[in-house]
Each structure stands twice: as C-alpha cells, then as structure tokens.
Amino acid sequence: MTEITFWNRPVVIVIGSAKHIVRNTREAAWLLADKWPVVGGKSFIRALRACAASLEGKKSATYARLALIAAARHANLSVER
User: Which InterPro entries match (predicted)?
Assistant: First the structure.
C-alpha cells in the first residue's frame, strides 16, 4: 500500500443529514464501503475500484477523487468540491 496523498481540494458529500469531508483516497474508500446509501451500480463499483487502484499505486489520487464525485452524483448526493 502506498503513502496516502491528500487531495488538493477536499470533497464534501452530504449523506442524509451528515456532511462527510473527504480529504484523500483512503477516506473515500471508507465512505464508499461504510456509509454509501446506494451500494451497487456502475458508478459505485467504478469508484471502489478507482480507490483500490489508487491505494495500490496503479492510478492517481485525482482519478479516485473524480470517480467518487461521479458516484455521488449518480446517487443524487449533494457534492461540494
């Protein structure tokens, strides 16, 4: 596993009444695995795989960040970036 790199800008995702500030790929993976309201679908799976690839050093942190944003939009979640 590679060193965790903080994103240039965090992503704020609102799930229910809770605001989640996601600062890096590890936090994104945790949010997807533990708190995500729509488990399944192409965007969700793509975001999980993007996070895993980033954590393994195969893809960039930016790639994972963009996949998380896409999954949030697909799940109709509020996103601040």
Answer: DUF982
